[in-house]
Design goal:
Belongs to the cytochrome P450 family. By secondary structure, this protein is an alpha+beta fold. It is 46% helix and 9% strand. Helix 4 packs across helix 6, helix 10 runs parallel beside helix 14 and helix 12 crosses helix 14. The protein binds protoporphyrin IX containing FE.
Amino acid sequence: MSQTASVPQGLPMERDAGPFDPPSQITRLREAHPVSPMVFPDGHEGWLVTGYEAVRQVMADTRFSNRQDVGVIHVPYETPGMPAAAEPSPQTPGLFISMDPPDHTRLRRKLIGAFTVKRMKQLEEGIVAITEQQLDELAKLSPPVDLVKQFALPVPSLVICELLGVPYEDRETFQSNSSKFMERDITLEDKMAAIGAMFGYLTELVTGKRATPGDDILSDLARDDDLTIEELSGMAFLLLLAGHETTANMLALGTFALLEHPAQLTELRADPSLMPDAVEELMRYLSVADIFYRYATEDIELGGETIPAGSTVVVSLLAANRDPHKFEHPDALDVHRKVRGQVAFGHGIHQCLGQQLARIEMRAAFEGLLRRFPTLALAVEAREVKLRTNMHIYGVHELPVTWA
Ligand code: HEM
């Protein structure tokens, strides 16, 4: 291998190229070896996939199993105390993101109706209302304020709580536990304690819904006798977590990115009809859910390499979305770009179930924020903004903003 692209020891995470760009080692690696060997911190060898075509191939090929995680987005080898997987992981009931067909198919199918484009369109008005209400609350505050706490986190949390039928008053429980669960460097013990607390809470909730169902997605699932309480809790866990962490980080990091690209921001403000394309471009450019793990169930040819059966394969969606072989000037944020084929929502059978919901939330939130706060600005220097390099979903911990 060339000197500029040596085998990575662990996953490069430091954002040395700037807060929005992939680590420079990842970019160099993609150019030299889009499918590269890597060594995990425990000495175990695996593969890192950074090229667009190869990433799509991995995600489209079910011989790369999703049973690499123990719990959603739970990352082996990075979590201190985590034993190395020698075979596909045991499955947690209901967590279909970490399952393969036919188990994955059976559970995902039960939710498809609730997340269709048509169903999401019907919910749009309610989502806009929630967003406007949060903007009213924001406008009452005296700046500087933390946009994460006051806007980016509440909007998707309120939306997913209402959809699922989770009381928003209980948000402290799920927000603090899911945030612990999302930390990279937390011990296995602490991670398991956070998962245990979430499951305890959700098991009680879905048991109540099975006894007295209401008008929400979890109640609809609870009416289905084919699903056990354990499966219902696992599905609730996945939906609740996936439904607020990702979108919240897109809203906060997306706002930061727009503020740091004032010419793009001005153009977007001048022509709000650009918003749907701009959201797609922000998804591509930021790819906050970057790293995903797969497990090779047999020897598989990929990008001129043979991935041996039993290997851990890591894909970087951010690297794929910045691949110059796919996107022109990939490192430029361009709100006029007509993005096609970006992979920030994944690809293949696990492609994001909530993508239409997320798009509607982001369009409403960015549109409302830019309209209601025409003088929005960072309240600190850009380099002082705390980046979530220690979390599974990237973004900012806080975004201090101000307005005139
Ligand atoms: C799956 C990203 C919002 C629910 C995924 C995957 C990605 C992703 C990359 C694929 C995982 C894999 O292949 O292993 C995002 C991003 C979002 C977002 C960037 C926000 C901007 C949402 C929302 C929901 C949601 C709002 C609401 C319910 C799910 C579920 C899966 C999933 C249930 C698992 C699908 C499966 O395994 O079949 N998401 N997501 N996501 N997402 Fe999202």
